[in-house]
Amino acid sequence: MRQLPLISDFLRTPQSRFAELPDFPYTPHYTEIGGLRIAHIDEGPREAPIVLLMHGEPTWSYLYRKMIPVLVAAGFRVIAPDLVGFGRSDKPSSKRDYSYLNHVQWMSAWVEANDFHHMTLFCQDWGSLVGLRVVAELPSRFDRIVLANGGLPTGTTPTPIAFKIWRTFAVFSPWFPIGLIVKTGCAAGLLPQEIAAYNAPFPSRKYKIAARLFPTFVPTTPQDPERANNERAWELFKRWDKPFITLFSTRDPITRGGQKVWQALVPGAQGQPHTAIRGAGHFLQEDKGAEVAAAVAAFIRNTPLTETD
CA of 209: how far to CAs of 89, 114, 148, 156, in Å? Predict the structure, then answer.
């Protein structure tokens, strides 16, 4: 039985905040996990292969609005959850309730509760730190992995200066404008109504606890409490022989070059069509969403699994 923290003190963003989201007409679905309501988008044929889109920080599933229609048109079922503390999902009120491990456990339990199988994971930013750990916990439920501008750090390699600056800002800045923060991570910028959509889940600073804390949870030293768990996950990926590709941006100062270790160490990454997404920033889903979705669809079509996979 999975051990989950039981959270009773949380915030729930009023539904009215999501009333006028541009280009995001999707109805949310909810699953209760450990006393919290986790939201997700579920589009496309129910019996089709699943593409699981995992967002990072400080975004939410709205990040995938340019990818969802392309993937659905290609015949896939698209699942896009909001991590606990983000989007339409509940937001624990106490900092003590947030941790890297808790998020892995919440999302692993969410996958099990919905009984998702035959998934292709697309993950970026914290979607990879959480998503790759979920794969390591439940490997038989995943058929493929697409890693984009993310990774699984163990605290044993140098931390990019850009990330150190971001972490300091998240912790100490009295001003934390989430929509504008997302805009700075996009090479093409955002429209005012899109900035407002990223702000929608966070009516006040009380709702921003997760967004502020996540940078502090990234393992950056060998003493990090999640180093051992990430290293155990890495051992699985060093044996992962199912299809695995990387789609990294050319204009992301935080993750640039991070794809190389995965291409070198993951057996399933050998000979795959790894692609550099040119002209995109950290949030490549915003800058090149349709292009990225087309690459994901082609990857799935071109890597059919056998019955023994």
Answer: 13, 27, 25, 27
d(CA 211, CA 213): 6
Query: 10-302: which CATH topology?
Result: Rossmann fold (3.40.50)
Give the phi and the psi of residue 205 in degrees, each rounded to 5: -65, -25
Residue whose pair of structure tokens reads 């997700």 in the numeric block: 40
- Please indicate, yes or no, whether the overall pTM of this predicted structure exceeds 0.70: yes
Q: Which among 183, 147, 120 has a CA at the least distance from the CA of 259?
A: 147
- Angle, nearest 10°, between helix axes 227-237 and 126-137? 70
- Please list the active-site residues: 125, 252, 282
The domain segmentation of the chain, as residue ranges, is 10-302
pLDDT digits (tens, 9 = 90+) for 47-91: 999 999 999 999 999 999 999 999 999 999 999 999 999 999 999
